Amino acid sequence: MEEYKFLFKIVLVGNAGVGKTCLVRRFTQGLFPPGQGATIGVDFMIKTVEVEGDKIKLQIWDTAGQERFRSITQSYYRSAHALILVYDISCQPTFDCLPDWLREIHEYANTKVLKILVGNKTDRDDREIPTQIGEEFAKQHDMYFLETSAKEAENVERLFYEIAAELIDQARSKDNSSSMNKNLSDSVGLSPQGSKPPQVSCCSGLSNQSSSQTGNT
Amino acid sequence: MFSYRCMRLIIPRPSVSRPPCSCCFQPCLIPLGCCGCCSALRPRYKRLVDNIFPVNSEDGLVKSNMEKLTFYSLSSPDKLDRIGEYLYQKASKDINRKRYKFVEIAMEAMDNLLQACHAQTTLNLFVESFLRMVQKLLEDSNPNLQILATNSFVKFANINEDTPSYHRRYDFFISKFSSMCHGNNDNIELRDSIRLAGIKGVQGVIRKTVSDDLVENIWEKQHMEKIVPSLLFNMQFGVNVMFVKKNMLASGDLTPVEDATVVTPPVLAEEVLRELVGRASFGHIRSVLKPLLTHLDRHELWVPNTFAIHTFRIVMISIQPQYSYTVVETLMQHLDNNFKSSPKTRTSLAVVLSKIIAIAAGESVGPSALDIINNLLTHLRTSVSTTTEITPEESQYQEALINALGEFANHHPDYQKIEIMLFIMNTVPDLSKKSKGDQMLQNILLKSLLKVGTQYSTTSFEKAFPASFLQPLLKMARAPHDPTRIIVMQIFQSLLDRHQNEKVLSTVSIKPYAALSQETPSRSDIIFTHKYGANIMQALIDSMALSEKLDSLTSSYNTAALLIVEMACGETVQEFLLFILGIQQVATTSDDLSNIHKCCLHIIAIALLTLTARVTGINNLLEYAQKIIEDRKQEATYLLPPLLDSKKSNKSYNLNLPHLAIDKMALAECLQNAGMDFNRLQTGVPYALNQIDNPGHRHSWVESVSNHMTHRNSSADLTAYNADADSISSSPGVSKKALAPEYTVDAMKRYLAEPPESVKREQQEKQKQIVRAFRESDFEDLMKRTEPKHDVIQNRLNDLFNSLSIDNKTPQNAANQNEKPIYETNFPELFYY
Ligand SMILES: Nc1nc2c(ncn2[C@@H]2O[C@H](COP(=O)(O)OP(=O)(O)OP(=O)(O)O)[C@@H](O)[C@H]2O)c(=O)[nH]1
Ligand SMILES: [Mg+2]
Hints:
Number of helices of chain A: 7
Shape of chain A: globular
Helix content of chain A: 25-40%
Distance between the termini of chain B: 54 Å
Organism (chain B): Musca domestica (House fly)
Bound molecules: guanosine-5'-triphosphate, magnesium ion
InterPro entries (chain B): ARM-like, ARM-type_fold, EFR3-like_ARM, EFR3_Homologs
Pfam families (chain B): EFR3_ARM (PF21052)
Family (chain B): Belongs to the EFR3 family.
Oligomer: heterodimer
Structural class of chain A: alpha/beta
Strand order of the largest sheet of chain A: 2-3-1-4-5-6
Shape of chain B: elongated
Largest sheet of chain B: none
Protein name (chain B): Protein EFR3 homolog cmp44E isoform X1
């Protein structure tokens, strides 16, 4: 069966080289690509997952971290339901840039977008950012938090499944509480009436008290 | 409620109006393809669709069956949507099973149906399936499927649909195509195919949406911020290729035909950008330009600026001409925003501006042209006022701005160049401002003025030097600062020099100037000389006395010499002789001049006398000059060219040699012997220093000339004025009311009833009034009276000066100043048509 129940758009952002593309490829293709080159502009991947028996389609936009592509990548923030902000736990500067990223997100993304902070490359033994520090930062800024390793496939599946689950919850509570707001449910290309999959709006009131729970591994 | 939605999902095309299932007469709510009871009796359309697929996918679409399906669709258009849905379902399964050949066949079938049925009113529903199919293919990671889908999409984009499609959205397509534009496959050929597909897709979306207001507004920020950088990103890689190709084309290694067949991503991207810009209406231009500028910033494409120039040229060529001004304006604002950037970046920006400004010049007239000039001048001011020490980079930036100004002026008709010069002249800080900054500003602005001046080709001095322009220029000719004065002299030279003699006359000499080209002054030149010649010569005398530096003196000489070549003739020669005598007199009577300086003035006087004699062809005069030269050769060679350099020589020369001087009476005699009028020379006083505040002194000659004109050549003069009498505003001394017919009904009636003779008489009377006015008024007065001619422009100028003088040296202010009045922003159409 081809049809899906929800469609979510997820955008990955963060400095060049933190492992965004590796995370996506690990999740969508189940591999860790050797010699992954820098992303140019924006890459696109799709993956359908099943949560509680429902098919969920995830549209994943993997943006380039390089400064020069910043303007085109920003234009993808707007329609995102979830934004994954990635840093490299073995590279302090990628963590130091987080406030800049948050500023951009604040400027270009939907205000209620689900934000997830991801510290990648936990497999490395030259860690510079303790888990605690990352978690603190996430808490301060209303973000979910998770540490991953694209290389060792650690927490990668979990990352995307948690996002899917959270977005489903949002969609359901939204859907139950009020009729869907068509303007905010920014859709896939087409929305023919009648065959339109119920759209999720990412604007339901989101409380992030549970963020540390999500993050503790 | 929610579960209901789920149902609708599972059943892809449910609807209340759905007809009952043909076999069980139950409303068919069961997903397609699973209707067990129907398997034996599949609906006809399904059988037809199934039959187009071959047993072996390699065999491709079964053509004959495709025809049957097409025929069926045309005869039963109500089934079209179900056919589309069924094809989509089949293709989805095939994609999941990676049976790509079958996917291709399904897509091809959809393309065919779309082409065949595009006139059907039910097409809309089919299009939805079609687009879902395209999206499905685009989502797959297989690049070939993506390319296949794009090609289908492009075909669809070129179809004109008759019915509007309210709820169709294209954001996925824009996002995905833009992403494809950045394709980064390791296989270069495949990479380029993906990029090409992306660009074509973008073009398709533009075509599909731009003319249809009901669908996506393609001009929205979030779309343009994807589309524009994607196109530029591809074009970026083309610039080098382009130059190679151009060279190859030029050298004949590559024939144009060959060239045209290869569509590379850069070539296509450029084409799409042209199309996009060409379709932009006034309100949309900025949506294109903003991401364009951001892209150039982000990718650091200003220094060097080859690509930026290339891109902006494309924009200027493609844009609807009436909006080209907006591009210039936007680029200028970008320059504003970059006021903190390195001078290199600003220079590059200004150079880009100078390259495109010419294209906009043709379209911007009147106030908007002045706005551009004003903006450029403001940038110059900012540059001068924010930098204490002008670095070479900063002065390059200023140079680039001045060039932009020149380019802009160059593409305006000459009468507008005059307005522009006038405008610039009025922004020059006057001589009372003596700070270093003001002085720099004076020079910079005068340089800009010079730039425009060199673009102007003078035919009539009357037009090149309107009084309101000449007056401040003459003031500046007396600037104490040498470089300033030299620029003013250059301005004079460029406006005076109608015969390209400026280079020839750049050295002071008593020998004949071999390459001199000459023409007898026209009547209007003579009138101009009578009107303003004295004022110019007066300023020249002052400027010559201001500095003994060689470049300064040479430059004043050059101006004087050009003046003589252009204006000296039998009728004006006496005035020039008084001028030459004046120079000599300054040398003999001014105590505060250095010895060397005095020598130089004598040298200039004798050189100008020789030149005047040659130009006017008065042999007696030439003989007299040559006699003096001979005597000086014997006794005082230091009174002959070349000019003495005060830096090289500090000798004190004997200047008490009255017998070697030019003698006024002797000159008068020469004229007399040549049978020419010498009255003015005999009775007139040679020019003297600092006469600017005392026009009374000089105006004596105006009277004498007038008298002289009356008795000698009045008829000729009258005809000259007659020609002018028609131009009401330029005629002084006569009130507008008297000249302009009163356009009241009564007046018209009277006018019609009156016999033509009386009209003639009236005109003659008017002309007489004008002539009288010229004869009886002195220069200052005449100037005052002629000034209203520039009323309109003057008002505009005043407005702008007022805004300028509120010390708005920060670019922010400059930007505010450029804000459009509200009606312009709200009703651009009103304003432009
Ligand atoms: N040890 C380790 N290396 C990783 C991991 N994830 C990515 N890398 C490496 O980090 C480098 C950059 O990975 P990418 O996925 O290309 O990084 P990116 O964030 O997509 O970079 P841009 O596309 O330039 O923004 C590559 O050399 C990867 O092999 C990880 O989990 N562990
Ligand atoms: Mg990447």
